[in-house]
Protein 1
Amino acid sequence: MAGGLVGDPGVTPLVSWERLTLGYGTTPVLKAAHGGLVAGSLTAVVGPNGAGKSTLLKALVGLLRPLAGRIDWHGIRRQQLGWLPQQAALQFDFPITVAELASLGRWRRTGLWGALGGCGQQAVAAALAQVGLTALAQQEVVTLSGGQRQRLLFARLLLEEAPVLLLDEPFAALDSSTAADLLALLMQLHREGRTIIAVLHDLELVRSHFPETLLVADRQLLHGPTAQLLAPAALPMRAVQ
Amino acid sequence: MTPAELLWDPFFSFGFMRRALAGTLALALGCAPIGVFLLLKRMTLMGDALAHAILPGAAAGFLLAGLSLPAMSLGGLLAGLTVALAAGGISRTGLLREETGLTVFYLISLAGGVLLVSLRGGGVDLLHVLFGSVLALDDTALLTLAGVATLTLPLLALIFRPLVLECLDPDYLRLASGGHARYHLTFLALVVLNLVAGFQALGTLMAVGLMMLPAACARLWTRTLGPMIAVAIGVALLSGYAGLLLSYHAALPAGPAIIFAAGALLLLSLPVAALRRR
């Protein structure tokens, strides 16, 4: 679990950012942010549409170069970060089966050329079982529903065995049953000691499950305990809703 | 005419037909898998544009050394790679989308290439460059076609998994490999190399046909990647064979006949695919 916020005395950050400015082209969506997160924290990234939540996540994972400032991961390499993208980032009509796509999560062990092996196949089967996709293992991904696709991305994430997980809208457009299953899985991963950073829209879900929040709004990045940052009185409603 | 006379005699009787068949088969082996990945990467326009883009390079080689395959191939290779990189570079500036950049460059390339050929050659030379001369493949040309296929297949096998990841989830490949440019560039180089090989046999305008039509046909028959590549190679091989037969018996130009055969196989596959999906 988190041992306090970055900036508290004696707290060492897992990731920190200084004078961080993010954007596309020359247009910043986030300007001169300072802050960081500690290992084992469970953090929601919230903010209005277009505020730069996904942009922040992409910069943290290394997919987007900051316009200015820097992001430093301490004691961990970027390639050790687990990444769950939005579904739109994937080409689901690619001819590949559920088990094959999930197995791509084993790249840290297999490299880009190594064989999966018996151990790897067992791990893939276990991950698919964990997300409830065992029966669909040999099915083409194009035939999956939106919820099943999200379960599959979670299976790939599990197989990465990463100590830090970054998730971009993991529960967007899911039915309540799938969202509940995947949320329970995410909480279990956190209890096992993983650091989790997730872009979310559902503020009730954030209040009930995520102790820390990064609030992106008006080109600023606020960081604090969720109860404090998203308290109804403190919440800049027009910015977040 | 017996079936044997119809199907085999042209190849038994004439050396130029055997050479054409060998060249086409070699071309099919390299081009068809490349076409499948172009299709899956949604880069069909890229293949078409690069096929046109090699023209000015080939024309420059022709101007400098006449109808010399090495000179024209080298020129084509340089021109193709330049356009591929330039289109990618322009899209990164945000001024034009990559497909717009490709269209711009290939139109300029096509016009420039035709102008260059016209400076020295006549209509016959231009037709040779645009539509190839598969019935006149010499040893150098055959070795080039076989060499390109020999290089293409193991290289594709080597970058197979990164290529799959790049089609499926390019961001994930960047995270997994620390950068995907080298795989993309290797693939682009293979596209250009196969187009350069193809232009000698089928011409700059038709070379892309043996990439894209078999790949599109295979997409109709199967939804799994391995079989898709196998079907695409099969269709390309069959198109080469059938096209050469059509060319021989109907006294038609061989390059267009081969591409026409590939197109016919695609059109015939459409109703079958529609029925299978019901």
Note: Chain B touches chain A through 23 residues (CB under 8 Å).
Protein 2
Amino acid sequence: MMAAALILGFSSVALLQFFVSYCRSIIAASTAQPLSEQVREVTGIRDRQIRGEEFLRLLQLTSLCPDSGADQTAITAVRAYFRIVSFARVALRGVIPGIVSWTEAELSGCAHFAAVALDRRISHSRNLMAQQYSRTS
Amino acid sequence: MLSLLDYAIWILTSVLELGVLFCALRTRSFFRFFPLNFYMLVAVMCDVARFAILRHYGFSSANYRYCYYYSDALLTICLFFALMGLYSQVFKEMGAAIYVRIGAVVVLVLTAAVCFVMVRHSQHRIATRFASELSQNLHFVGAVLTYVLWSAVKKLHETRTRLIQFTLALGVYFSAFAASFAMTVLYPSSPYSGFATYAMGLWLPLAWSYTFLKIPESARLQTARVAAGARS
């Protein structure tokens, strides 16, 4: 029983750490990619840094475009991470004052990831339409 | 008895495992990450074998039970070697790949010995109990070793994005299963175990397919930006 409780404790902490790091690796990989003018036009985003509040709106726009491959897994993982960070922000704001600026940076990263996913899907849709057009003409 | 949902998830898992192999071949990464792909190949073969035995002998037959536990132990050993493959890649430049191989065999033998000590007093089905115990313990050992690998990746400033994502996805898989087995011991009627089995069966092929497809081999990442708790 004692061993099982210890294993459960270690595994739960490790699971959370691995999941958070995995989501951050996906977000960090997307931050290197600049947003196209096209996606800025569609979303109305002008600033270099996207605010965290834009994340859900960007995901809604992403869901309107056809899936460009295996990015649904990453979107689901980042959505879960967004919820965890939002929860931590609300729950720990009173205890750790510095957490607000940290969570804002994290949520902004999530929003940037969603914008990159939208960008990918828009260009994928354009390619599909171009292929369709070249077949019919 | 398996429900329609069980069958659907089973088939979906097999399709996703095949998807990993397809993605690896498409991105010409099959041999670069051979231990990971070999695991997926064995997983597909086990799925087919389990399904054939299920159809022939039925769900509640001893044949299916034996097949399930032995194939599960085999898959866990393959996944353990997939993890060692990631270790070899991280420590390749240090020329420590041979030590990693020796260490892997030693850990595997020690885990097997501990499992044998745990089940040796069983009156019957000692081999099945051994296979089941080995699989459970290897998941925990896998979680610990992945944690050690992740610490080494951070310490050595490893920047290969693919390697980082494969390691982290595997860490999620091992630790979720280890937590699930511990939960089953502490709370036998908890539904978490069944949920974890299904969710992780889908998680690993989905996460690895994403990495093969969307992350180019040349992609680099600073681990300091990825580690949990670090500032972006």
Note: Chain B touches chain A at residues 19, 23, 140, 143-144, 146-147, 150, 161, 164-165, 168-169, 171-172, 175-176, 178-179, 181-183, 185-186, 206-207, 209-210, 213-215, 219, 221-222, 225-232 (CB under 8 Å).
